[in-house]
Amino acid sequence: MSDTLIPETGMSTSATMRRNFWLGVWRVMKRKPSRMAGVVIIVGFAFMGVFGPMFFPDHLPDNPNAITQPPSWAHWFGTDPQGRDVVALVITGSRYVLLSAAVTALITVVFGTSLGLFSGFKRGRWDTVLMRITDMKLTIPGLPLLLVLATVWKFGSPIQMGLVLGLLGWGGVARAVRAQTLSLRERGFIEAARGLGLSTKHIISKELLPSMAPYIAMNMLIAVTGAVYAQVGLFFLGVLPYESDNWGVMLNLAVFQAGAMITTNALGYLLAPLLAILLLTLGIVLVVDAMDEIFNPRLREE
Amino acid sequence: MINGTGITKTFKQRGNVLGRREVPALRGVDFEIGKGGSASFIGESGCGKTTLGRIIAGLETYDSGEIEIDGTPMSPLKLKHRQPHFRKIQMIHQDPYSALNPTRTIYQTLQAPLALRAGQTGRSKGWIDERAAEVLSLVGLDPGTVLSRYPHQLSGGMRQRVVIARALTVDPEMLVADEAVSMIDVSLRLGILALLKDLRERLGVSVLFITHDVATARYIGGDGELYVIYRGQVVERGPVDTIIANPVHPYTQSLLSAIPVLHGLELPGEEPVVPLESLTENQSESGCLFAARCPFRGDGCTDERPLLRVTEGVPQEHACYYPQRRSVIARPMSEV
Amino acid sequence: MADQAPGVRIDGLTVVYKTPAGELPAVRGISLTLEPGTITGIVGESGSGKSTLALSLLNAVQPPGRIAAGSVEIDGLGDVVGFAGEQLRKARGAHIGYVFQAAQNSLNPLKTVGKQLLDLGRSHGVADLRGLVREARELLGRMGLDGARVLDSHQHELSGGMRQRVGIMLALVLNAHLVVLDEPTTALDMITQANILKIVREVHAERGLTTLVITHDIGVVAEVADRLAVMYGGRLVEQGPTREVLGSPRHPYTRGLIRAIPRLVGDIDEARALPGRPPTLVTVPKEGCVFRERCELRMDVCDTVDPSVVADGSRIVACHAVTVKEHAS
Ligand SMILES: Nc1ncnc2c1ncn2[C@@H]1O[C@H](COP(=O)(O)OP(=O)(O)OP(=O)(O)O)[C@@H](O)[C@H]1O
Ligand SMILES: Nc1ncnc2c1ncn2[C@@H]1O[C@H](COP(=O)(O)OP(=O)(O)OP(=O)(O)O)[C@@H](O)[C@H]1O
Ligand code: SF4
Ligand code: SF4
Ligand SMILES: [Mg+2]
Ligand SMILES: [Mg+2]
Fold first, then answer.
1. Percent of chain A scored above 70 by pLDDT?
2. Which residues of C283-321 are buried (b: 16+ CB within 10 A; e: fewer)?
3. B185 or B67, which is more confident?
4. Residue A137 belongs to a domain with what CATH number?
5. Is residue B167's pLDDT more than 50?
6. Whether residue C221 sits in one domain with residue C274
């Protein structure tokens, strides 16, 4: 109670508050080094997705003399059956994977949250209708649908991919957010806000959303991992045509073309994308651990 | 400033076995609270006090009856037009922990309703900050230290003061305090009660006090009216001191008899009234609602329900066929 | 097993909790005797250490807390502070009945009361479970409930007052003669409270118990307790026969607390709020009097020296002002 990093004036309002927030975030991160590691990993991947491909030519040079090489100093994870460097492939392939995962997360969260909020807040008829739709959507089996879609669509663009995965994935979030909204709206402070005549917009964006922020943030991060697994899985299964280079395609080729299961030469080719996925998952898990403390002032300020 | 006639409210619950269960929470309640006045609702758990308080604060609908605020009947109005009237009546909840948003600082909490007003009246941002500090000072808090805090950084008593300050941001004409001190440290309770009393005296805000502790009702609204509510019906109504000194309804007498006696300082009342049984969900609906528990039940009590009225020789309104003054409350030893 | 009310002697008890700021005492150097067959009431505000003290009677303080010093001697058992494992488990229930704070909510919502009763019996190796049920029904009947119906009910089918009585039944059914009730009437309304207090008094007398009642409400102890002990900031500041303490409180805190209760009769404006607010584990003064921040009689010595506990007949007070006065006269 005594820890006042907060200046005593309190009058310069939003700027100080924002600064306090980030100071708090810093404190939460410092509390466990693992969280820092998580942030570093995620930032690293974001960097890789945005800038990585810029360091490489659009088409990585083939090298018929160095097909499916084992790891060496020149090629840390070896080369692929066309003689391309695996590390370079992982980096150039990351953009597709990460961009589509980001799109998925965005759609899942924006769609799921707004629907859940609206439904839980309005209750009544709206709620019933929306939740019926959500239920129906939840019963659509994702994988078969994707298989069907794959026959007509090539998923060449990561945005397309993200869109489809996102539209398939918001149901769970919507339900969960609705449940949270229903329980929060019974709380005294929501009722007080209504009694004071504050607008619904204020109540939803300033009172409800911040209370659900850790929850939403967690869902978003989890949606990212889910999306990565889903699309890598699809490409690995060979359901989708190889329109672009990405981690799923790499895995597929490593197993079915380079024969990673038979020859140790292709092991690096198989391991590199797997490691990338594992590392990304690890980063996300480590950061999710901090969400509760970041968005809960009590845990943040202590 | 506000009065109600014949307010009824029945909750329909999904029952466990037998389908829907109807809970009559209010059965035709009349009330009237003047500008700057005070009233207290007392009664057992589940008697409908909170429901009535919430209806008065516009947070709950009612099934029938009419509420008038400053002479304007509310039920013909659309929700949008009703709200500005009910905004003059602010509720202070029992639990100051859940009444404040844990993710917002006290400044943010006070700023939102003030900004709304500033927008409506074309006032500046400086006014908001000034007014936020002002309402905090009104409730006895130091704005300098409190404004930038989060609710969890304040004690229960301070939190309840903030809740009251937030209500004051809209310049209310009436505060509805529902068990406002029951979750606060004992040594801090009287401070909050004194604050409510002080607001009444200084700002002329009416206070509706909901409690099951009659003595606190006496502290805040000694000059006001006391409503004794039983199973959704007002069974006795009159000036606080009159009813405490001369209760005539057996239910009021049971309530007053149940107040702990500070042995050593007080002597117990001479004729304490103890209900024959406890309140259960399916006690009889016919005749007097208290009949099953009433030690003084007599002829006709279970035939027709006694209504609130004045009878000869009894100064207050009551709903009992056999009103009888009984000395139930403790007396101070010093007076004996 | 002792079939009569045991006496309890708590001596120099200190209980600490581990916090980010180190180990802090929630109960500090408390000595208190529960005479056999009496009801003792402990009054204190939230955080004053009441529940912690009560838990120590069972040696049941949970980590991060631990009993750091002192002893709790119970007749027929010995010093429970040294107990551990099986020995301790047996003592609880069979010897000491405990009605936990918020007992209204501590029943298992998924099981009927009867099932929970049988679980309790089995875990204490009761051979005659039928007898146990009979005893439970009798106890519930004694408290004005329909025993058979209550045993068949789930928690949500019972009202707050009924649950509290079930809690008391579970504490007594194994024939414990030392009973601890932590906030037995909080969240109940006046009539139900009066009813529960009456039951506590009657059952206490009929079964020959030693009872400890813990509450923040002076009215509650005034109604039931023979002796009253006032806690503040982990210290016992005053104790004595209830009527004497209420009639002529000596410690400034006790006086302030009594004055802060609005009363039904007399001049209501005599009620005075206590200034300041109660300390927390972190803010409670390490040296000097724990109450000095709010005390109107505060002297220089209060800032540095913890007032010692002084007995005057049956009255025990820890305050420099009171001691000074006594010495002077
Ligand atoms: N939202 C609701 N849905 C169904 N029943 C309700 C609801 N709110 C209240 N009730 C019922 O209406 C009755 C009156 O409740 P109310 O909360 O007004 O009582 P109260 O006098 O405030 O009691 P307490 O002293 O326990 O706060 C109770 O039987 C309660 O169970
Ligand atoms: N598990 C715990 N960890 C840390 N501190 C604790 C723990 N349990 C209790 N405390 C602290 O010990 C002090 C005494 O707590 P205790 O529960 O005994 O108080 P109490 O008098 O029973 O209060 P209440 O009336 O709120 O029940 C408090 O300051 C509390 O914060
Ligand atoms: S009307 Fe009859 S039953 Fe009802 S309170 Fe009066 S005496 Fe009792
Ligand atoms: S010791 Fe001093 S500060 Fe403490 S209660 Fe007595 S007079 Fe007050
Ligand atoms: Mg209520
Ligand atoms: Mg406790």
1. 93
2. ebeeebbbbbbbbebbeeebeeebbebbeeeebbbbbbb
3. B67
4. 1.10.3720.10
5. yes
6. yes
Q: Is residue A91 part of a domain?
A: yes
Q: Are B48 and B279 in contact (CB under 8 A)?
A: no
H/E stretch holding B20: strand B20-33
Tell me what pLDDT residue C94 has: 81
- The 8 Å CB, 24+ separation contacts for A15-23 are A16/B148, A17/B105, A17/B107, A17/B108, A17/B148, A20/B148, A21/A300
* Cα–Cα distance measured from residue C130 to residue C136, given in angstroms and rounded to the nearest whole number: 10
- Winning range, highest mean pLDDT, from A61-70, A183-192, C96-105, C254-263: C254-263
Highest mean pLDDT among A21-30, A187-196, B245-254, B273-282 belongs to B245-254
Residue B96: CB atoms within 10 A of its CB come to 26
Q: Where are the alpha helices (DSSP H) in chain B?
A: 49-56, 79-86, 106-121, 125-138, 143-146, 156-168, 186-203, 214-221, 240-245, 250-257
Q: Which residues of A touch B (CB under 8 A)?
A: 1, 4, 6-11, 13, 16-17, 20, 187-189, 191-199, 202, 206-207, 210-211, 213, 295-298, 301
Contact B206, B227 (CB under 8 A): no
Q: How far is the CA of C307 from the centre of ligand 4 (A)?
A: 7
CA of B23 to the centre of ligand 1 (A): 9
Gap between the Cα atoms of A247 and A228, Å rounded: 9
User: How many domains, in total, are found in chain A?
Assistant: 1
> Which domains, from first to last, does chain B contain?
1-88+172-188+196-245 (3.40.50.300), 99-171 (no CATH), 246-336 (no CATH)
Reported as a single tens digit per residue, the pLDDT across A69-111 is 777 777 777 777 777 787 888 888 888 888 888 899 899 889 8
Residue C303 belongs to a domain: no
Question: What is the band of A118 on the pLDDT scale with cuts at 50, 70, 90?
Answer: confident
- Among candidate residues A278, A272, A274, the one with its CA nearest the CA of residue A85: A272
Q: Is B48 in the pocket of ligand 1 (CB under 6 A)?
A: yes
Query: Looking at residue C36, which CATH number applies to its domain?
Result: 3.40.50.300
* C39, β-bridge pairs: C211
Instruction: Identify the three-state secondary structure at position B79.
Output: helix
The amino acid at residue A284 is: I
Beta strands in C143-215 (DSSP E): 178-182, 210-215
Chain B's closest residue to A17, CA to CA, is B148
Q: Does residue A13 surpass a pLDDT of 70? A: no
C33-45: buried (b, 16+ CB within 10 Å) or exposed (e) per residue? Answer: bbebbbbbbbbbb
Specify the pTM.
Answer: 0.86
Residues of chain A with Cβ-Cβ distance to C281 below 8 Å are none
DSSP conformational letter for B309: B
- Between A245 and B297, residue with greater pLDDT: B297
Of the ligands numbered here, which is closest to the C-alpha atom of B21? Answer: 1
Average per-residue pLDDT for chain C: 89
How many beta carbons lie within 10 A of that of residue B94, not counting itself? 21
Highest mean pLDDT among A45-49, A232-236, B233-237, B282-286: B233-237
Q: How far is B6 from chain C (nearest CA, A)?
A: 26
Element (H, E) at C167: helix C160-172
Does residue C100 sit within a domain? no
Range of the domain at A239: 57-283
Which residue of B9, B10, B23, B255 sits with most ligand 1 atoms within 8 Å of its CB, as the best mutation to test the pocket? B23
Lowest mean pLDDT among B17-26, B311-320, C112-121, C200-209: B17-26
CA atoms in the 13 A half-sphere facing the CB of A34: 9
Is residue A6 domain-resident? Answer: no
Q: Which residue of chain C has the CA closest to A302?
A: C20
**Residues C62 and C190 grouped into a single domain:** yes
pLDDT at site B52? 96
